[in-house]
Design a protein that fits this description.
The chain is α+β, with helices and mostly antiparallel strands. The protein has ten helices and seven strands. The strands form two sheets. The chain has a five-stranded mixed beta sheet, covered by helices on one side.
Length: 351
């Protein structure tokens, strides 16, 4: 299990291996340019140096991949020191092999340096490059941790702005039932308490779609008592994976706005359609509601604050990967959410 201080990359991944190839070639090119008295032509120098550096990088990555379990569990200083020592030991081993093997492949002059000078030079270069790389990785890791912490704090603040609206509207509905149907009001109040217990427990984390659906159904059950037959709801979630992760309170505020601006003002009420499906690796959620004539004549329904709030929370959880679309046509208003699909077993994305 990774500690909060873990900052080294996954040395077992293909991405890391590819970056090592590019880094080896780039370093070989720079070292060849810096050599003002090359013994071979430039391309040969780059090739030999690149091969030498690549062997050091790949063998180091292989050893660090084997040590991954310990590196992830150790504190930053210990993990960094282990990685540094591993690279230096591999540098010595590859340097010794190069010193002994150059003559066998047609270069009788070997490295052209005394052994102590050769080993001192490659160890110095290896140490400087490794230290600079470790420093870069550590700074990047701390920066990502800070961004994640700020995003979580911003998400919590935005979610806190949503919850009071849900609470006040639900309490108003329950209050209207206290005199007429006290038993029903008590039951709804208990349901509301259960809903908020679940919401508060999940603050700052993504939740499965199944929980969002259950929460929205409970909210609609409360509103159904208030609006009666004026509120009609149609669900179609057969193609939506229940384990898909999304920010808490993603559906309920949109349904609340659909009731407030589409159903409640209409004399005969209206219909809300809630749909979900999986398309091209993304979860697509749609909320459609009918609109009264006076709202249709306006340029847009008055739910901009809720949409901006949800858009901000989606962006915090899925930077540059979440989309929120709105449209109004044929007397209906639609809000569509598109987010990358991640199952409940997937680690929450950095926010």
């Amino acid at each position: 299990m990774k500690t909060p201080e873990a900052f080294l990359p996954d040395f077992c991944s293909l991405t890391t291996a590819f970056m090592l190839i590019l880094g080896s070639l780039l370093l070989a090119f720079v070292l060849a340019l810096a050599d003002f008295s090359p013994r071979y032509d430039f391309l040969t120098e780059v090739g030999l140096r690149g091969l030498f550096i690549a062997w050091i990088a790949w063998l180091s990555a292989a050893l660090l991949c084997a040590m991954r379990r310990w590196l992830e569990a150790w504190r930053a200083f210990r993990a960094g020191a282990a990685a540094f020592a591993t690279v230096l030991l591999v540098t010595l081993a590859v340097g010794g092999a190069a010193q002994a093997g150059l003559a066998r492949i047609g270069y009788p002059e070997g490295t052209g340096l005394e052994p102590w000078a050769f080993y001192g030079r490659i160890l110095a270069i290896s140490a400087l490059v490794t230290l600079a790389w470790l420093r870069h990785q550590y700074v990047q890791s701390r920066w990502r941790s800070q961004i994640r912490a700020e995003s979580i704090a911003r998400l919590d603040a935005l979610q806190a702005r949503v919850q009071p609206h849900f609470l006040f509207n639900s309490l108003n509905t329950i209050a209207s039932l206290i005199r007429k149907e006290p038993a029903t009001a008590e039951e709804l109040l208990l349901d509301l308490a259960e809903v908020f217990r679940a919401i508060l427990k999940k603050t700052g984390k993504l939740v499965p779609l199944s929980e969002e659906i259950a929460l929205t159904r409970q909210y609609l059950g409360i509103e159904q008592y208030r609006l009666g037959p004026r509120l009609k709801v149609a669900w179609d979630m057969r193609q939506a994976p229940g384990d898909a992760l999304l920010p808490p309170l993603s559906l309920q505020p949109l349904v609340e706005n659909a009731i407030r601006y589409g159903i409640e003002p209409a004399l005969n009420g209206g219909k809300i359609e809630i749909q979900g499906r999986l398309a091209r690796g993304s979860l697509v959620l749609s909320i459609l509601n009918s609109l009264p004539e006076e709202v249709v004549r306006r340029s847009r329904p008055g739910n901009g604050v809720a949409l901006e709030n949800l858009q901000a929370r989606l962006e915090s959880c899925f930077p540059n990967r979440a989309r929120l679309y709105t449209s109004q046509a044929d007397g209906r208003y639609q809000v569509r959410i598109v987010i990358p699909y991640q199952g409940a077993g997937h680690e929450n994305p950095p926010r």
